[in-house]
Design a protein that fits this description.
With about 140 residues, the chain is mainly α. The chain contains 9 helices and no strands. It has one domain. The chain is globular, with a radius of gyration of 16 Å. The relative contact order is 0.09. The C terminus is likely disordered. InterPro entries: Got1 (IPR045176), Vesicle_transpt_Got1/SFT2 (IPR007305). Keywords: Golgi apparatus, Membrane, Transmembrane, Transmembrane helix.
């Protein structure tokens, strides 16, 4: 089992609440306040989980500046009151930022008993998320 420090446990909680508020804000027709709270909690939770310095290094790498500008720009647009446009920018930036993690997530999900059997079905594995993510990311580079 993985041992977490207290700040990492707090970060996991903040990130979880951030995702919850983002999801709930989208369900309630893009409620500005819930989306803003979710954004702040998600970014703060990420900083607690991996540390402040590593968070800055992750977001401000030279090859991730476009993705960071879309993600943080989307957060800013939500905060100033245009939630739909901001969420679209955030989602695009999120996929650009975390595209390297998607194959790892798919591999992890394939090991879960019920979900793994669904993802390994022939017609679903032919249109694999790994392939979709790589084509999305290669298109997003241009």
């Amino acid at each position: 089992m993985i041992s977490l420090t207290d700040s990492q446990k707090i970060g996991m909680g903040l990130t979880g609440f951030g995702v919850f508020f983002l999801f709930f804000g989208m369900i309630l027709f893009f409620d500005k306040a819930l989306l803003a709270i979710g954004n702040i909690l998600f970014v703060a939770g990420l900083a607690f989980v991996i540390g402040l310095e590593r968070t800055f290094r992750f977001f401000f790498q030279k090859h991730k500046l476009k993705a960071t500008s879309f993600f943080l720009g989307g957060v800013f647009v939500v905060l100033i009151g245009w939630p739909i446009i901001g969420v679209v920018l955030e989602i695009y930036g999120f996929f650009l930022l975390f595209r390297g993690f998607f194959p790892v997530v798919v591999g992890f999900i394939r090991r879960i008993p019920v979900l793994g059997s669904i993802l390994n079905m022939p017609f679903i594995s032919a249109v694999s998320i790994d392939h979709c993510c790589s084509s999305l990311c290669s298109c997003a580079m241009f």
